[in-house]
Specification:
The chain is mainly α. The chain has one domain. It is 72% helix and 0% strand. It is built from six helices and no strands.
Length: 119
């Protein structure tokens, strides 16, 4: 456990995790976008998701990590709850990485990231 949780908080966390697991386990992908979302939900890594999908041969072309990122950050259909959840988690993860870069580096990198965020 990373942080202290009260019993009430832990129960709420458990319920959210169980709902997330159920969402993934019940997901029935039928197109490339959905296979990307489902595979990323199971693996949690952009490059490994691309590799897995390329090994699975669901399309006649090579899927690049940039394709995976683009699909994850695309606007989810209204009824695709897993895509919505994955997109939110992905963006939150990358926001945290960007913030750690701001704290780690100095000078020009700080202003570069700050200016990128302002746009």
């Amino acid at each position: 456990m990373k942080t202290f949780r009260t019993l009430t908080q832990a129960k709420k966390d458990l319920q959210e995790i169980q709902e997330y697991i159920q969402l993934i386990e019940n997901y029935q992908p039928i197109d490339l976008r959905q296979y990307v979302i489902y595979t990323y939900a199971k693996i949690g890594n952009i490059a490994k998701t691309a590799e897995a999908l390329n090994n699975f041969s669901i399309v006649d072309f090579s899927i690049e990590p940039e394709d995976i990122s683009r699909i994850i950050t695309s606007k989810p259909p209204k009824d695709d709850l897993l895509h919505k959840q994955i997109k939110n988690l992905y963006l939150k993860k990358h926001d945290m990485l960007e913030e750690s870069l701001i704290l780690t580096f100095n000078g020009s990198v700080d202003s570069l990231i700050y200016n990128k965020r302002k746009k």
